[in-house]
Amino acid sequence: MNQFIFVILFFLPAGIANAIPPLVKRLPLLRRWKTPIDFGITVRGKRMLGPNKTWRGLLLGSIFGGLIAVVLYPLLVTKSSSLIATNLEAYFLIGFLLGAGALLGDAVESFFKRQIGKPSGSSWLFFDQLDYIAGAILFSLPFVHFSLTQYAVMVVSYF
Predict the structure, then answer these.
(1) Which whole-number Å values give the CA distances from 42 to 49, 57, 85, 122, in the listed order?
(2) Which residues share a beta bridge with 95?
(3) Residue 83 and residue 67: Cα distance in Å, rounded?
(4) Count of C-beta atoms within a 10 Å radius of residue 8
């Protein structure tokens, strides 16, 4: 398998995890579970993360990342792949951590948006696209090692 395609598919759980929170907040059964990750804490008089960063989104996005990895990663593993793990539990853990990394990267960016006065949900060009990618890369480092070129392909693909 082409290593660049492998890199794009390897990070797919992070991309999907990043898309899950806005979807699950619409599910009637989960709508009431909207506890913010920051529990309403303020820093310098401003909300730390804002109301849209919830435990529901973090947990369910991470779980979906793990489930996507369980389905996808067995198809990616070859003798030439860079993936260290080779069982379903490890795939789930990697996908879960990629999802968590993506969502926590987004939360870090949200913190800085709040501190500079950008309202919740407003766009912040470049940072809105790079935050989850940086988080996923950071959380993937114990499991896979790519070249700088492969990371660049991943950043450009998911940007």
Answers:
(1) 8, 20, 40, 19
(2) none
(3) 17
(4) 17
3-class secondary-structure state, position 12: helix
Nearest to 138 by CA among 94, 101, 108: 101
Amino acid at 159: F
Confidence of residue 123 (pLDDT cuts 50, 70, 90): confident
Torsion of CA 128, 20, 36, 111, to 10 degrees: -10
Query: Do the Cβ atoms of 102 and 61 come closer than 8 Å?
Result: yes
pTM: 0.87
Q: Report DSSP letters for 48-103, one per residue.
A: SS-TT-BHHHHHHHHHHHHHHHHHHHHHH--TT------SHHHHHHHHHHHHHHHH
Per residue in 94-118, pLDDT tens? 999 999 999 999 999 989 888 888 8
C-alpha–C-alpha distance, residues 147 and 55, integer Å: 33
